[in-house]
Write a structure and sequence with these properties.
The protein is an alpha+beta fold. The chain is built from seven helices and nine strands. It has one domain (31-289): Alpha-Beta Complex (Replication Fork Single-Stranded DNA Binding Protein), CATH 3.90.198.10. The strands form two sheets. Strands 1, 2, 3, 6, 7, 8 and 9 form a seven-stranded antiparallel β-sheet that branches. α2 (90-101) runs antiparallel to α3 and α5 runs parallel beside α7. It is globular, with a radius of gyration of 22 Å.
């Protein structure tokens, strides 16, 4: 028996320990505020290059043990460029069975409520003041932000009422002041609102150019990965029988998303404020924004 444990073996062991330690944590594909307080974000308008008409993409997600899985009963293009056509979803079937067999307020109804598909929305955003790992300004690199129905309703109402003007305009729109209080399932975003101040997404032309360099790589489809029905059913049965889930069937998602704290939020209405002025040449900003 070879008992020699050399440096190479030691390095390999460290690698395996790191994998084991990180198992189940995953890195979310979506940005979220990591601490309490207010973070200013700016929503990017629909991108002409992708033929978009909305500033978000809607999808439906199931959550099991705090992890997310795409509902099979929806048609979306996935990260491989394939169009997944809607098909029967085993989790949706189980939810229907639980509702039919239980009574309101029963354990079956509670479980059905936990498992049911939820509407989620994804937008591209700029995070004000963001830094990279070296502490350098990384504000021009956009992020994907996932939010729930109540935030979507707030934006829809702002558009319908017209009191905030065209807040999506990259030229003279508004930042969104995302205010976080609490953590986990107690997270509260109810103080969030659109800024009273209008401003360009960037007044600096060079920053705007950097933003435009990143946007072509931000197709929403890269976030979409469907699993087959048999695999999902197997994982669902393991969960329902008290076993551990196989994380390969799930995409990484914050535990906060399982019971969306944003679903209970109400938002204040903002009034229109005058646009700020910029010292940058107006024609340069306008020309660049016209290309987005």
């Amino acid at each position: 028996m070879d008992t020699n444990f050399n440096d190479s073996d030691f390095a390999a062991m460290i690698g395996e320990m790191e994998k084991e330690n990180q198992k189940g944590t995953g890195k979310s594909l979506y940005w979220k505020p990591t601490s309490e307080g207010t973070t200013n974000i700016r929503i990017i308008t629909p991108l002409k290059q992708f033929g978009e008409k909305l500033f978000y993409e809607k999808h439906r997600m199931h959550y099991i043990n705090g992890r997310s899985i795409f509902c099979l009963n929806q048609t979306l293009k996935d990260k491989d460029g394939n169009v997944h056509e809607a098909e029967p979803c085993p989790i949706c079937a189980k939810v229907k069975q639980l509702y039919n067999n239980g009574q309101k307020g029963s354990e079956e109804w509670r479980l059905a409520g936990d498992l049911r598909a939820r509407d989620r929305y994804v937008s591209r955003i700029i995070v004000r003041g963001k830094k990279d790992a070296d502490g350098k300004d990384d504000e021009t690199r956009p992020e994907f932000w996932e939010f729930g129905m109540k935030i979507h309703e707030y934006f829809f109402n702002q558009i319908k009422l017209g009191q905030a003007g065209n807040f999506l305009s990259l030229k003279d729109g508004r930042d969104y002041l995302l205010t976080k209080k609490g953590t986990g399932r107690n997270t509260d975003y109810s103080a969030s609102c659109l800024s009273m101040q209008q401003s360009p997404v960037f007044a600096d032309v060079e920053k705007l150019k950097k933003l435009m360099e990143y946007l072509p790589s931000m197709d929403y489809s890269q976030l979409v990965e469907f699993k087959n029905a048999n695999e999902i059913l197997s994982e669902l049965n393991i969960y329902l029988n008290g076993g551990e889930t196989n994380e390969s069937a799930f995409t990484s998602a914050p535990v906060e998303s399982q019971v969306d704290p944003l679903d209970a939020m109400t938002q204040p209405v903002v009034n229109v404020a005058p646009a700020t002025t910029s010292s940058e040449p107006k024609e340069d900003i306008d020309a660049l924004l016209g290309m987005i």
